[in-house]
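Lab notebook, bench 4. The sequencing result for the construct came back, and we need a structural model before the next group meeting so we can plan mutations. Quick request posted to the team channel:

Model the 3D structure of this chain.
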Amino acid sequence: MKILLLSDLHLFDVRMTPQRDLDRLEKLASFITGSGAEAVLNLGDTVSKASMLRPECPSIEDGFRHYLRWRSQFRILFIECAITRELAFFTSLSGQTPNAVFDCEGVSIIAMIDHTDFSPEQMAFLTGVLARSRSEGRKVVIGTHIPYPGSCSHPDKIKFLHIPPELHRTLTEFPQPVWWCGGHFHSNPEQPMITGSLTALYGGRFRLDTRNDTTYLRIIDTESGQIDTQFPDF
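Done. Here's the predicted structure in token form:
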């Protein structure tokens, strides 16, 4: 199964023009259609925070509605990693709970809310899904907006997820491959961290016009285990 990772679109951001957003979404739609992806895992920050929104977007909720209308053109599965600031409307608009699992072709795809420390409820949810996936022989793809520690470079280690040692051990010793995907930092395309069965990777970013960086997206092929990094010009 091919899963396309998106992260940090930051729609309606004051650092981008309205035309730039329109062009990017049009080109992204063509890219998704041509990628052969069977699912899209969006790692979050789809719409920028309220203080960074352009005047034509009155709220984050309005921006998210716009994104969902754009998303509706596709006939493949979209899975969203929720951001805390979206919780007031996330489920009612997207139809997905903030902590969710989708079972697809021998793969469990998990999306979780962007807490640095998992709540007891989140931990129970995740360990339950992992136990079921183990018993059913499923591979696992996990998406969180905040990255797994060691998956990319960042000077502030506090801002990575806080992973309990027992969870890390479960993932590295899992009988099937596990991919943990994160975003948030706008990091460069570094090599994933591979430890046992766990591959922890940074999922990608979209270029901001005020920064001297590049857009890149990644596609996980769960059948071959390959991770393809693409550098589209948008």
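The first strand starts at residue 2 and ends at 6.
Will bring this to the meeting.
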